[in-house]
Automatic annotation (TrEMBL):
Protein name: Glucose-6-phosphate isomerase
GO cellular component: cytosol
Leading EC class: isomerase
Catalytic activity from the UniProt record: alpha-D-glucose 6-phosphate = beta-D-fructose 6-phosphate
Originating species: Tribonema minus
Database matches in InterPro entries: G6P_Isomerase, G6P_Isomerase_C, Phosphoglucose_isomerase_CS, SIS_dom_sf, SIS_PGI_1, SIS_PGI_2
Transit peptide found in the keyword field: no
């Protein structure tokens, strides 16, 4: 696409923006303001009730408290001004109505359409109403999952299909795994519990043979359905694992086309349909999604729908979609200062680009959200880890923090030392008012969930307030330990307190983070929807793969064009120098 047309598409027909956002008056004002804020200590402002009330927002019982961010109302007003300057609202609207905001790939970005209602107004992409397409695939998922769960659809030898193996990587794995981990803790739909327990869902992601073994070793192929999840249906690791699984099925039941036809299904982009069929998977087992769904934004498509509906029933997935849809509507219509994903995105921009914090940690105080940090890691880092703006200028400001995390309280006993005393890393605490399980051991002062949540409430204050020399002296701390036990505090965090972990609120969490990521990208003027940075490694791996193959089949040498370091390492690996093993 020509640069001018990219600029036109992205500036949404409005007058062109300055080359760099840093040249705008709004950005410069924030830069100056950040110098004042750097002198403010959270200890001095956290006691002001009106500030705490102002720096909070609520949506359907999910309460966002950002009073522990290093911001004032003026900071927020300056961020809203920058948002207006960056035409944030217009960009959100453009994304949701199907404009091709992924300009480098010429694609719309419509994960919001995946949770549309069947009677929603049409969203037209290249002349097609995608709302209809979405619901046609969802109906197909529902019918197929019900047929499997009722026993109507069986394996090639007539056995019930009770094992679901989802083969995929990156966005074709992390989102569904996060939701699966969380769904597996839900008790609300206990009527289905026995049935749900009967089905086993496993993910085969890594091409490491150990992952293959770990996933398949105790499953009966006759009772297994393998779902190959790959948007492109070309990803090397996924396709090798898919062929491995197919061979495993053939080894058990014979190399008959009916084996693949009955035991394999695919979730892939409609443009990969021919590849799916060539693999042996019939069209009725292709659950398609579309080029306008990015891999890391695909959980709500068949990518999540199929494995999760097979395991938990379609109804649970539908409630998940409803939660995400509620946040989509809020995102598109709530004013900036009441809009949860917008607020989270603006605070992300503030911390990274103005306060200079290059990392961020996500801390769910819920074991159900065990895999949320890994999903957010891909979502945020693949989206916003970029070097140029949408129009190709090198970004000359800080963008795209490093995201990591772990559920609390486990994280407290591993990396929280650094959060409290090492470099400053803004934290996002997520907690729930109600647990899925009530557990109060007789004689204990509090129930287990209260104990968990006591930490959820305490940690943000420890980070913000710290512990001063004076407090330590008053506590009788030995003088030589005072420097070691002093906490500077003034470490920013936000707290998201939600009613309960269930499919509906999980959908909300997913959409909150998807939109937070988009808001940051829109503000930074980058394309959050492509991922060219992963291509070079794939190309080089393909070169190494073909060298290994040629060398092992006596048709070529390893060297030639390789640098001495890679050549040396590869030679050591391929030739398996006995000396290297003598210590084993
Ligand atoms: O769904 P696919 O096409 O197999 O891709 C898997 C993942 O690989 C990536 O392309 C990165 O290599 C991700 O963006 C994507 O989620």
């Amino acid at each position: 696409m020509e640069m001018e047309s990219i600029r036109d598409t992205y500036s949404l027909g409005l007058k062109p923006q300055p080359k760099s956002v840093t040249a705008t008056a709004e950005w410069r004002r924030l830069k100056v303001h950040a110098r004042h804020i750097a002198k403010m200590h959270l200890r001095d402002v956290l006691g002001v009730a009106s500030r705490c009330e102002a720096l909070s927002a609520e949506f359907e019982g999910s309460f966002l408290d950002y009073s522990r961010m290093q911001v004032t109302q003026r900071t927020m007003d300056l961020l809203y001004a920058l948002a207006r300057r960056q035409r944030l609202r217009e960009k959100i609207a453009a994304m949701c109505r199907g404009d091709k905001v992924n300009v480098t790939e010429g694609r719309a970005v419509l994960h919001t359409a995946l949770r549309s209602a069947p009677d929603d107004a049409p969203i037209v992409v290249d002349g097609v109403n995608v709302v209809e397409d979405v619901h046609e695939v969802l109906r197909k998922v529902k019918a197929f999952s019900e047929a499997v769960r009722s026993g109507e659809q069986r394996g090639a030898t007539g056995r019930l299909l009770r094992n679901i193996v989802a083969v995929g990587i990156g966005g074709s794995y992390l989102g569904p795994e996060f939701v699966h981990e969380a769904f597996s803790t839900e008790q609300q739909h206990a009527v289905d519990q026995d049935l749900n327990d009967f089905y086993r869902l496993r993910f085969l992601s890594n091409v490491d043979p150990v992952d293959v073994r770990r996933t398949l070793y105790d499953l009966d192929p006759q009772e297994t359905i393998v779902i190959v999840i790959s948007k492109t249906f070309t990803t090397a690791e996924t396709m090798l694992n898919a062929r491995t699984a197919r061979q495993w099925l053939w080894d058990a039941m014979g190399k008959d086309p009916s084996v693949v036809a009955r035991h394999m299904a695919a979730c892939a982009s409609s443009s990969a349909a021919a590849r799916v069929q060539n693999f042996g998977i019939p069209p009725e087992h292709l659950f398609e999604f579309w080029d306008w769904v990015g891999g890391r934004y695909s959980v709500c498509s068949s990518v999540g729908a199929l494995p999760l509906s097979l395991k938990y029933g379609y109804g649970m997935f539908d409630r998940f979609l409803a939660g995400a849809r509620a946040v989509d509507i809020h995102f598109q219509h709530a004013p900036l200062d009441r809009n949860l994903p917008v607020l989270m995105g603006l605070l992300g921009v503030w911390n990274m680009s103005f306060m200079g914090y290059k990392t961020r940690t996500i801390l769910p105080y819920a074991e159900a959200l065990l895999k949320l940090p890994a999903h957010i890691q891909q979502l945020a880092m693949e989206s916003n880890g970029k070097r140029v703006t949408v129009t190709g200028e090198v970004v000359d400001y800080d963008i795209g923090p490093v995201d990591f995390g772990e559920p609390g309280t486990n994280g407290q006993h591993s990396f929280f030392q650094l959060l409290h005393m090492g470099q400053v890393c803004p934290a996002e605490f997520i907690g729930f008012i109600e647990s899925q399980h009530h557990l109060h051991v007789e004689g204990e002062v509090v129930a287990s969930h209260d104990e968990l949540m006591a930490n959820f409430f305490a940690q943000p204050d420890a980070l913000a307030l710290g512990n001063t020399r004076e407090q330590l002296v008053a506590e009788g701390c030995p003088p030589e330990l005072i420097p070691h036990r002093t906490f500077a505090g003034n470490r920013p965090s936000l707290s998201l307190l939600m009613p309960k972990v269930n499919a509906y609120y999980l959908g909300q969490i997913l959409a909150l983070y998807e939109h937070r990521t988009a808001v940051e990208g829109f503000m930074w003027n980058i394309n959050s929807f492509d991922q060219w940075g992963v291509e070079l490694g794939k190309k080089l791996a393909s070169d190494v793969r073909s060298r290994m193959h040629k060398f092992r089949s006596g048709k070529g040498t390893l060297s030639g064009g390789l640098n001495p370091s890679t050549h040396g390492l590869l030679k050591r690996y391929v030739i398996r120098d006995r000396d290297a093993f003598k210590h084993c």
